[in-house]
Amino acid sequence: xxxxxxxxxxxxxxxxxxxxxxxxxxxxxxxxxxxYTFLAIVMVGAIYPLYWAFMIGAGDxxxxxxxxxxxxxxxxxxxxxxxxxxxxxxNFWVAIGNSIIVSTIVSISVVFFSTLAGYAFSKLRxxxxxxxxxxxxxxxxxxxxxxxxPLFIVMVNLKLAGTLPAVxxxxxxxxxGVFWMTQYLEQALPYExxxxxxxxxxxxxxxxxxxxxxxxxxxxxxxALFIFIQTWTNFFWPFIVLxxxxxxxxxxxxxxxxxxxxxxxxxxAGAVVSILPLLALFLVTGRQLVKGIMEGAVKG
Amino acid sequence: xxxxxxxxxxxxxxxAFRHTINRWDVKVSPYLYISPFFILFAICGLFPLxxxxxxxLHEWSLIGGEGDFVGLENFQFVLGQPKFWDAxxxxxxxxxxxxxxxxxxALVIAAVLDTNxxxxxxxxMGVLLPYIVTPVAIAIIFGVMxxxxxxxxxxxxTNIGLPAIGWHSDVIPSHIAIATMVxxxxxxxxxxxxxxxxxxxxxxYYEAAMIDGASRVRRFFSITIPQLRPTIIFVVVxxxxxxxxxxxxxxxxxxxxxxxxxxxWRTLTMYIYNLGWIESNFGRASAVAWLLFIIIxxxxxxxxxxxxxxxxxxxxxxx
Lengths: 300, 319
Known about the structure:
Number of strands of chain A: 0
Helix content of chain B: over 70%
Oligomer: heterodimer
Order of helices and strands of chain A: HHHHHHHHHHHHHH
Number of domains of chain B: 2
Shape of chain B: flat
Structural class of chain B: mainly alpha
Distance between the termini of chain A: 44 Å
Shape of chain A: globular
Number of helices of chain B: 13
Strand content of chain A: under 5%
């Protein structure tokens, strides 16, 4: 057993090494201490604001006046976080619940409809296909955020203003998602599989469901991750259309910052707490996220 | 005998029926599959966008709804407001402070990440970390960091003997602070996009250049940048479209959300919000939305042309 794993490890090591020396001249691409220093500085820039917020958020009202650049965090973080979470002005737990509901529904819907449309655009034949596909791509460039006024009027008329569906409905499909899945299925799904299913008498939808959907899984997972983060961090439209009782997390956070402006440690504790759910997600899926951005970039 | 033929006929009809169903299935299914996108885009994207034009030509209040047709009066009104021009200036200023440094720094980060470094995944995840932070939280944190009185940025400045800066009270410093939030969230993300594009550049180019004795810097400017041309254009255009609509960061830069006492950092999208939901004048809000829409289209096209020209100028040497 152990020799087997050792062998496997040696093999993977060898595999890892050969392409490196082949594709990259070792001399060309060795980063010097300058490269590492630069990356370290970038890293500090990425982490320091968050640490500083935690440091102040773990203190009390006077911590900010000490004007320390860096310090060990004080002992009050949980106390402050608890005060923010149980604040009467916003319902933090409900806001987190709302954010989970909205982000989950939107992610599932975008993935499903994008895979469906991506399957049609990449593998099915129909009139007007390329024109319609270009239209989808063109909508990526349309700043739809500017249509908030009529969108608000539409939601009021549908009696949805102030409720979660007002945020969910416009986000159920995504041009980016359609583009992404089309690109992926184009190369990942062989025509032979589809034809085999059709010859066996499977209906069009059955073919999609049992052939296309499973092979779309890797790209679908990444798309879901991106849409989840995008929906979770979204502010402008939820801020406009949601009620006091239906706030998502960023909206609730914005209300908090209005109410506690005299106590920085409370505001910052709230900000740090709001980061935690996505931070946990990032620690688990960060690798996939990096991969997804890089794969999307090559295709895009 | 007769029963047999009836059964046969039935079977034939059934097959024909199935055949028809199947033909319809093949014909109609593709349209059905792509229809959800088009239907929802029509309702929640295209229609509201066009309807913005209709609303902008009317007197229209948040509560009262549609009023009289007023022609271009709303446009005349907002174009006569100093607030509009201030917001336009702020929007562009913040955009310039964010887009240019962001692309440059992201290119350098990508170039370093593209080398044979240790712990690749660690660095890549590290630069991406800020992307998962909500802009609202970023704005709150940076709003305090850039606080005129107790902010850590001014503390740092005074510690090294420089004068404190009015990050909230002055116009340009407030724009720099807000642009810093945008850069904080997006630079690492853009760097990964550039990194992916760099890795797609054939390594032979670099080797050939090395043999010719080109320095590392020279290789970067003569090979990497021209090869990255489509990616750079893509990043610049998308960040233009997003950047000119900026709202979250300036809205939460202080606790009042009005863009400063004199509107130092009030952007056009904030102005749309104020007109529509504070002054409850949907007509004027729509007029500004249309103006911003036109500005974005023009500016994105302009950016496309400029960045195309710059990067093709760089690649001429190669040809």
